Amino acid sequence: MNVFVTDSYEEMSRAAADVIATLVAEKPDCVLGLATGSTPIGLYAELVKDYEAGKISFAKVKSFNLDEYRGLPGDHDQSYRYFMNTNLFDHVDIDKAQTHVPDGTNPDAEAEGLAYEAAIEEAGGVDLQLLGLGHNGHIGFNEPADDFPVITHVVDLTESTINANSRLFDSIDEVPRQAYTMGIGTIMKAREILLVVNGEGKAEIVRDVLTGPVTPRVPASALQLHPKVTVVLDKEAAKLL
User: Active-site residue 91, yes or no?
Assistant: First the structure.
């Protein structure tokens, strides 16, 4: 595991974008695992700059997103499909037919999970999986639990996650209570993992994830067992290391 500490959110975003841009330049048909949330917004903006400057092309890239709210269609302004279109896909030359986000409108959780796993396998697996980190240690929507979920599945969101995400909705009552998410097993199959975290509020969980015991009560602690992980932090998130 390689851990890099930067002075600011902007530097963190640029450093993390460089990891992805390097992969895209070296392997134009790579498969990217992508994440949503506030943390990667700056990273995606940097990738758009790289594309506009002619440094990289996403024309042959395939992508698979970590998760999607259950019950939200892709055109809902709080869906993760909408987030990806707005922050990245609409601004680069990626073929949207080659971008994948779990179908939040599929009522059959088992079928959706198996179909998503099959699509990832058919694409040859994920070359690099981008991750953010929840305050309770979740990656994707894999919440603290008694075991590590293996494959893409539906999960009941915890109250802390619902509360954290409510700032993006008109009221907390509008926040979905479930989501589809890649399992920890799915994430760990990626050939490379890039974890980005910023802010003093994440310092304690960063410490627990990187230096504490590997336990499903801290889902991201499983990353300690992956052979190729890059962690990019701002100094506030790293202050307890």
Answer: no
Q: Name the active-site residue from 138, 198, 234, 236.
A: 138
Enter the DSSP assignment of 139: B
CA 39/CA 13 separation, integer angstroms: 8
- Is 183 in contact with 145 (CB distance < 8 Å)? no
CB-based contacts of 115: which residues, under 8 Å, 6+ apart?
A: none
- Angle value at C-alpha 212, between 210 and 218, nearest 5 degrees: 85
Position 224 in a domain: no
Torsion angle in degrees (nearest 10) through CA of 234, 137, 64, 10: -10
Contact 155, 161 (CB under 8 A): no
136 is known as an active-site residue? yes
The CATH number linked to 93 is 3.40.50.1360
* Model pTM score: 0.94
Tell me the pLDDT band of 105, cut-offs 50, 70 and 90. very high
Task: Select which of 143, 192, 234, 236 is catalytic.
Answer: 143
Number of structural domains in the chain: 1
Q: Is residue 217 part of a domain?
A: no
| Residue 75 annotated as catalytic | no
